[in-house]
Amino acid sequence: MRRSVENRIREYKQVKAIVEVEKIIKKIPQTPKGTAARYVREDRDSH
Fold this sequence. Notes:
mainly alpha
């Protein structure tokens, strides 16, 4: 029984952490489409 309760608490903490991370991610402004590809291209071409 104790292990079951511990597992439920661990599961609850994981879900809570995921919700918090999702809130943080939603606050981050989006970058224009193609930004990552441009950065990779610039880095690759600079060598």
